[in-house]
Amino acid sequence: MKKHYIIAGMVLFMLALSVTQAQSSQEKMSLKGAVEQLFKSCKGNDYRGVAEKTVYTGNNQKRNFKAPLNPNSTNEKKKAKRISRKISALIMVADNYSIKSITKRSDSNADKYYVKVEFGSGKQSISTELVFIKSGGKFLLYEIN
Length: 145
Description:
four-stranded antiparallel beta sheet; globular
């Protein structure tokens, strides 16, 4: 009887592990899509699109870490432009880019997803880390390291 409980426990553990791996795999695909969409908006100088893909961080506690930037706000649109120009500069000096790693870390504000992107040109490369937060079922850019 004890043996059956051990086997049942092992089966439940394996099922839980496979569900966790499926979720993280799905999160990784969603993050890759978020990076692609962000880069597309940056390349096209679509500041509204960049704003909608960037999380608000500021004094408004109702929006802080929960909502995207407001492209109709002058200050928030300026932030979107700065982000777009920074990412566009990386894209323009590179022949290609690839996502090297995705790491999830939690802190007091939210779960943060660290996406390491490597931009390559010939034998040279530049790495940067994009940090995303999941809000409203979407991944929004939090910062660029």
